[in-house]
Design a protein that fits this description.
This protein has 507 residues and is α/β, with parallel strands linked by helices. It has helices at residues 41-58, 63-79, 81-92, 96-119, 168-176, 189-205, 221-229, 242-253, 275-294, 315-328, 337-351, 379-384, 405-414, 430-440, and strands at 7-9, 12-14, 21-24, 31-36, 125-127, 141-147, 150-154, 180-183, 213-216, 233-239, 261-264, 271-273, 306-310, 357-361, 373-378, 396-402, 418-424, 444-449, 488-494. Helix 3 (81-92) packs antiparallel against helix 6 (189-205). Pfam families: Aldedh.
Length: 507
């Protein structure tokens, strides 16, 4: 399928590619051949208006029909075949195997929500009437859920499939009964167009109003502002930097009608290495942490960015293995040349912090390739420099040396919110681990024991969120079946006849 470079608005291609932008070949850093349109204000308006028009019919579809739509999207994504894998890999620099795995996860997410719809997307809460209650009769009340309306979704840079066009936010919003206006990420516009075509084809096959989904291309910042400020947008899903996310959040607060903003803005995912585990398995821990940090060139939201341990007699042996492992790593490419430049700038800034030491760097690269790096510092330096809490997006980590376990506990109270944290321990560490876990649990959305944080299981029990800045609403998850609740609102039906109730509340 050849790329048009245009927006795909309610099933129709639109956009002037003569005044647009190009993606970059992540491996070479050179511009690619297709020019993509910068959406106009009129095109964004049309996408949102058509989505609002489609909401009336789409929100009334029964659960089996919505499930069929989601499964059909998955089938159409698979039907794109090798072309999707090739374009996504070229645009992002991610290997084919990673893209294939992410495609499987994307289709799996769609299937998860389809399963949820077919089994009942919420549990009915029914309190029957009691006309004999004194002093007043009790009415029949039943709690259900309604879709919010049109949802604006911003694609992630680091997951061109699983957190982008048909990814978790889109899948959960469509499952909830909400049309989606998707803002594609400029790092992988070709990938976005192919997946958008799959969604559009699925809507045609299922006889669903084409306004249920639109893809907006562009690098113009005004596009994002128009989407979040538009009165017909009823919720927003965003994955990106804290700086951009907070700009959008402030714009939403200024709306006449504030709406939910589900932003994932950054996480350093601290790793706590308990003393007996370090003494027994220090070499394995060092190798595992480096391997986890290197996954996806460090461009995972769950990449282990801070490693915390007591600097006891085993510390030097541990850091020696870390240094050896880092030096073995080849230079790598990042998603875009701009991200590579940003990573290099962050690493140089960290080198300039007094009290922070560069432990080791990987092989030097050429052009826009980047080196992996691990730094070390002590707790007092960490406390004095708030910048050390900021995520370095890429292959870099910071070891925080603590003088004793009390300092480890102090660290756990000082960190900002994170998606994850891991405690690496033996049974002989359990007493301290329990104390630590009670503290760290208040800082994360997922607490892990003896496993690395990279990788998120898509299942009913998963929580992918956390206190700010990990997410802007710590009560929700962007992964797993519970994500559907972000785009629904509760409604109580009182004394309603059976014929007027949703099917899940009848009887």
């Amino acid at each position: 399928m050849s790329l048009t470079g245009q927006n795909l608005i309610a099933g129709q291609y639109s956009g002037d590619i003569e005044q647009g932008f190009t993606a970059f070949n992540a491996f070479t850093g050179e511009p690619m051949s297709t020019t993509f349109a910068d959406a106009t204000s009129s095109e964004v308006e049309t996408a949102i208006t058509r989505a609002h028009e489609a909401f009336c019919s789409y929100s009334q579809l029964d659960a089996p029909m919505r499930a069929r739509f989601l499964r059909t999207i998955g089938e159409q994504i698979l039907a794109l075949g090798d072309e999707l894998v090739e374009i996504a890999s070229t645009e992002t620099g991610l290997p084919h195997m990673r893209i294939q795995g992410e495609r499987g996860r994307t289709v799996g997410q769609l299937g998860l929500f389809a399963d949820l719809l077919e089994s009942g997307e919420y549990q009915a809460v029914i309190d029957h009437a009691d006309p004999a209650r004194e002093p007043l009769p009790k009415p029949d009340t039943r709690l259900g859920y309604l879709p919010l309306g049109v949802v604006g979704v911003f694609a992630a840079s680091n997951f061109p499939l699983a957190f982008s066009t048909a990814g978790g936010d889109t899948a959960s919003a469509l499952a909830a009964g909400c049309p989606v206006v998707m803002k594609a990420h400029a790092a992988h516009p070709g990938t976005s167009e192919l997946v958008a075509k799959a969604i559009t084809t699925a809507a045609q096959l299922c006889d669903i109003d084409a306004g249920v989904f639109s893809l907006i291309q562009g690098k113009n910042y005004a596009i994002a502002s128009q989407i979040v400020k538009h009165p017909l947008i009823k919720a927003v899903g965003f994955t990106g930097s804290e700086r951009v996310g907070m700009i959008l959040q402030r714009q939403i607060w200024e709306r006449e009608e504030p709406i939910p903003f589900y932003g994932e803005l950054g996480s350093v995912n601290p790793q706590f290495l308990m003393p007996n585990k370090l003494a027994s398995e220090g070499s394995e821990l060092a190798q595992g942490l480096v391997a986890s940090m290197m996954m996806g060139q460090g461009q995972f939201c769950t990449s282990p960015g801070i490693w915390v341990l007591v600097a006891d007699d085993n510390y030097d042996a541990f850091t020696s293995v870390v240094a050896e492992e880092i030096k073995k790593q080849p230079a790598g490419v990042m998603l875009t040349p701009q991200m590579a430049a940003g990573f290099k700038q962050s690493v140089e800034a960290r080198k300039a912090v007094a009290g922070v030491t560069l432990l080791a760097e990987s092989e030097a690269g050429e052009g826009h390739q980047v080196q992996a790096s691990v730094f070390e510092t002590d707790l007092s330096t960490f406390i004095a420099n708030e910048s050390l809490q900021e995520e370095v997006f890429g292959t870099s980590a910071l070891i925080v040396k603590c003088s004793d376990f009390n300092e480890v506990l102090q660290f756990s109270t000082l960190i900002k919110g994170n998606l994850t944290a891991s405690i690496h321990a033996l049974d002989t560490d359990l007493s301290q681990s329990k104390t630590l876990a009670l503290s760290v649990a208040h800082k994360v959305g997922r607490l892990i024991y003896n496993q690395m944080p990279t990788g998120v299981e898509v299942c009913a029990s998963m929580n992918h969120g956390g206190p700010f800045p990990a997410s802007t609403d710590l009560r929700t998850t962007s992964v797993g079946s519970e994500a559907i609740k972000r785009f629904q609102r509760p409604i109580c039906y009182q004394n309603m006849p059976n014929e007027l109730l949703p099917s899940l509340l009848q009887g």
